[in-house]
Specification:
single chain, 345 residues, alpha/beta, Rossmann fold, Helicase, Ruva Protein, domain 3, Zinc Finger, Delta Prime, domain 3, 3 domains, five-stranded parallel sheet, 54% helix, elongated
C-alpha cells in the first residue's frame, strides 16, 4: 500500500506491517518516517536494530542470517536494509521474494534507498514485498506542498505561522527540507514564545544566509559588482556547487524577465505574484532601472549555454564563467565576450 510522507502516521493502535519501503531523493522526509517507525516499533518490543547496506560487496546470506538470528537480550528486531540503487539484483530479488513469502512476526524489515521508477515497482520482488508492506515515496516538496510542510513543522514546535513567514522560509529553503527544519528549530530557540514577527524571522534567516546564493542575488540586484565578485570567491572557497548558483541566477532571470515584460505591457507590478516582499522591492526597483528585455535575451542565451556545458562536464573553471554571468546582471557590457568552456580531456 502506498502512503505519502504527510499521511504516514503510526499511533498506539496501528498495526505494524512486516515490511516498510522508503524510497526517494528527499532525505529529510525519509529520515522522519523511519524515526517514527523506530519509535513505534520500540514500544511493541522491537528493541534490537540491525543496519545493512546492499553494496557491491554485500552478501545476501547476511540478510537471511539476520532474519533468523536474535540476540540473547531481544525477542524482536528491526532490520534496516539500504538499497543505494533501488535494485537488489538477481540474487537479492530472490531473497526478498522468499522473505515476503515467509513472514516472521518478530522481524520487521525496512528497505530504503534513492528514487525508484515504475521499472522497480513492477519487479517480482517489489510486488511480493508490497503485498505485506507500506510503501512511502519521499520526493522533494515544491509549491503548496512545501508551504504546508513548513506550516506543519512550525505548528509541531509551537510556533505561530503566517503567510509571509511561511513563504519566506519556502523561498530560502526550497529544495532543502533539512535547512528549513533547522531554521524553524533556530527560531523557536530565539523566540521561545513562538510568535516572532516577520522582520525578526527575516533577520534571523538572512544572518544565517550571509554567504549563500541568496545573498549573492541581493548583491547583484543592488548592482554592486565588486561585492558580487568577492561573494563568488567566498562561495567557491566554501565548496558551493556551481549548479546551485546557476539555478539561483536562472530563477532570478525568470522573475526579472516577467516583471520587465509586464512593465512593457503597461501593467502595474504585482509584487505578491512574484513573491517579492516589501523589504526587497527596492532591490528589484534598482535592477529594473538598469536592465532591459533586450539585455535579458542575451542573458538567457548565456545562462542556457553555461547550464548545458556544466551538465556535460565541459566547464574547466566554472566560477570564472559564473563571474561573467553575474556581471551581466549588473550589467556590464560583456555581450561580445564568449564564454570559453574548454572541453575536458
Amino acid at each position: 500500500m502506498q502512503v505519502y510522507p504527510n499521511r504516514f502516521n503510526i499511533d498506539a493502535t496501528s498495526e505494524l506491517k512486516p515490511f516498510y519501503l522508503f524510497f526517494g531523493d528527499e532525505p529529510q522526509q525519509k529520515l522522519e518516517c523511519i524515526e517514527l517507525l523506530r519509535s513505534a516499533a520500540l514500544t511493541r518490543g522491537f528493541d534490537e536494530r540491525q543496519s545493512l547496506v546492499a553494496d557491491g560487496q554485500f552478501s545476501w546470506d547476511t540478510l537471511i542470517e539476520a532474519t533468523q538470528t536474535l540476540s540473547l537480550f531481544s525477542t524482536r528486531q528491526i532490520i534496516e536494509l539500504e538499497l543505494p540503487t533501488g535494485k537488489p539484483g538477481a540474487e537479492g530479488s530472490k531473497v526478498l521474494t522468499s522473505l515476503a513469502q515467509q513472514i516472521n512476526p518478530d522481524v520487521l524489515i525496512v528497505i530504503h534507498g534513492g528514487k525508484i521508477g515504475k521499472d522497480v515497482q513492477n519487479t517480482k520482488w517489489f510486488k511480493a514485498v508490497d503485498m505485506h508492506a507500506i510503501y512511502v515515496p519521499c520526493y522533494p516538496l515544491e509549491g503548496n506542498a512545501l508551504y504546508q510542510w513548513i506550516n506543519n513543522q512550525m505548528r509541531l514546535v509551537g510556533m505561530q505561522s503566517s503567510k509571509q513567514i511561511s513563504q519566506l522560509l519556502v523561498d530560502y529553503c526550497e529544495g532543502n527540507l533539512l535547512a528549513a527544519k533547522q531554521e524553524i528549530q533556530k527560531l523557536i530557540l530565539l523566540y521561545p514564545q513562538g510568535n516572532p514577527s516577520f522582520e525578526q524571522v527575516e533577520q534571523a534567516v538572512v544572518d544565517q544566509s550571509r554567504f549563500t546564493v541568496f545573498h549573492l542575488i541581493d548583491v547583484l540586484l543592488s548592482g554592486d559588482a565588486q561585492k558580487a565578485v568577492k561573494m563568488l570567491y567566498r562561495l567557491e572557497s566554501e565548496g558551493v556547487e556551481p549548479n546551485i548558483i546557476v539555478w539561483a541566477l536562472t530563477r532570478e532571470w525568470q522573475t526579472l524577465q516577467g516583471i520587465l515584460f509586464d512593465r512593457q505591457q503597461g501593467k502595474t507590478i504585482n509584487w505578491n505574484q512574484y513573491r517579492i516582499w516589501k523589504s526587497r522591492q527596492s532591490l528589484y526597483q534598482s535592477a529594473l532601472q538598469r536592465l532591459s528585455l533586450e539585455h535579458m535575451q542575451v542573458l538567457q542565451q548565456k545562462l542556457a549555454e553555461f547550464d548545458g556545458a556544466i551538465k556535460q562536464s565541459q566547464v574547466v573553471r566554472p566560477y570564472i564563467e559564473l563571474c561573467h554571468l553575474c556581471l551581466l546582471f549588473v550589467p556590464y557590457q560583456l555581450n561580445n565576450v564568449p564564454l570559453d568552456y574548454g572541453v575536458l580531456d
